[in-house]
Amino acid sequence: MIKMLTGQIKPASGSLRVHGVNVLEDPIRVRELIGIIPEQETPPSFLTAEEYLHFIAKIRKMEQYEAICDRWFEFFDFKAQKNSLCKDLSRGTRQKLMFAQAFLHEPELAIIDEPLINLDPVMQRKVKDFLIGYVKNGGTIFISTHILEIAKQICTSIGIIYKGKLVYAGRVDDPVLQGRNFEEFFLELVSRPGYSDTGSSTPIQYA
To answer: 47: which residues sit within 8 A by CB, 6+ positions away?
Structure first.
């Protein structure tokens, strides 16, 4: 779904619009408007962390971006690694870098796949607090994750996709979810007739 929303693959049927832009007709414009964090962090190995953020800022035609980039190095506490090549960064540091590039231009919408992967507990809390504040200030996030408690802590609405079908959609404050463990709810949901056979699942949350 994320690849379809960001214009990387075409859907078999139907239509897609992000910020009013037809994704099938103008996928580049969609990617200009939003921030994207893929599940696998892939900053160019031959650039330093700072060079990568400056590269992204130039592509997005940002002005006075050096100070903005420095704020993200401070926020994620990896200023000491900003001159290190991306290939030499740890997975956690690369995840921080990908997070920074997605929000560098302060997009109204960010599409994120597994936002807390490879981050230590302290940084996970910091990122969750940032995302909650981002939404309160008018931003929108679309998150895909297998860690259901993230949805409970961050999101206002959730959708559960199982075997390619949307099997649940609703708000986090839906009475059916109150006092429920999201993992237990998910397992109960997919064990109903028609969804009991084994297979992979992809819960998707959006806020």
So the answer is: 55, 85, 86
